RNA helicase (Notothenia coriiceps), 481 residues
Amino acid sequence: MSTARTENPMILGLSNQNGQLRGSVKTAGAPGGGVGGPQQQLIQMKGTINNGNSLPAPTTNAVIKLGDDWKKNLKLPPKDTRMRTSDVTATKGNEFEDYCLKRELLMGIFEMGWEKPSPIQEESIPIALSGRDILARAKNGTGKSGAYLIPLLERIDLKRDCIQAMVIVPTRELALQVSQISIQVSKHMGGVKVMATTGGTNLRDDIMRLDETVHVVIATPGRILDLIKKGVAKVNQVHMVVLDEADKLLSQDFVSMMEEMLGFLAKQRQILLYSATFPLSVQKFMNAHLQKPYEINLMEELTLKGVTQYYAYVTERQKVHCLNTLFSRLQINQSIIFCNSSQRVELLAKKISQLGYSCFYIHAKMRQEHRNRVFHDFRNGLCRNLVCTDLFTRGIDIQAVNVVINFDFPKLGETYLHRIGRSGRFGHLGLAINLITYDDRFNLKGIEEQLGTEIKPIPGIIDKSLYVAEYHSESGEEIKP
């Protein structure tokens, strides 16, 4: 099944304001916008997004009596039977129950569909629960969010009416995603209050929210530092700070904010650093601020095992035609298409919609409420293709994405690694296709050598078993249609 075409492409034009097609967005599964297939059920989000905060869906907490078989009452999502690679299956065989977690937290974990800890979770959770600082390096899409959120939520004391933990992330979209996961995992815990605060949203709303009980803050650096300096966010009792995508947070863009923020915290605090790549800036920060950190490195190889990488050698003028050919030949569940500038994102999105394909776009120059809506709707499967800048490379986890296309090839190996990590999430299969011009040829070779990976010439026919879930069983065997 190829990418769905719109029924009447002439009617649907792009809105320059909100990154979405004009006219009604069709529901999941409908021609021109919906996402079909068994993966669709994996990406439904509960609650809504409002001014940068995720709001939990109402839940009813059943009273748990001693001796109850509490697992029987769980509302588990459908079992994910897609093949998974050793990136997430090469575990020691531990169970979440082995970590002596609160039963209410375990209920949230299982209802998220997390059956067993991934390797990074096995290594990280018991150490984080002990209160020790951590420097953890693991591949994109292998469960880093769960690795720090589970011990963080376990250590929240509901009797203390104060901010006890903070998660700092580099982008607003990642803040929304992490807060949504936190709310869902903690929904049975009887009142853990999670707040997302990011730049681009109403500061007054955040100030009013902090006047009430907040236990966990998920934030971007500029906004949380602003709230701390104004005396609104009181962080003197914070005992755990997580830097997710630590390499970006400790780059020149943010490191001075991170240093200033730590100055407001208590001396006895736990710092957890998580990322797929760790440049020298991270090492310098670790030496200055972490106390005998426990180091975890699960990066024997850099790229995900389940992502097959190809390149197509084209001229700049051939790129759109090549993209049109890919859309017609590939079985795309959802795709993310990367460009190197905001202007090119909007131009390409317009071209794709003119070709008759459903398309959203997102970049940093858009108004925040429009970015929120695009992110929310794409994650919920209301559109098949998303064109974006590198804004969307950090930690964004959309399970239905099985194809990533680099319309513009990146210059840095680190950028390439994060981009292709948007497919093949949590050990599943995915495809990364790179459109390479004459000027990109040296970058291609350099990134292959830097990452120790192979990007192959694109074949005439791409085997569906490399990236389509329906062609695999749980054991990894191809399913005959």
Notes: The chain has two domains: 86-297, 304-471.
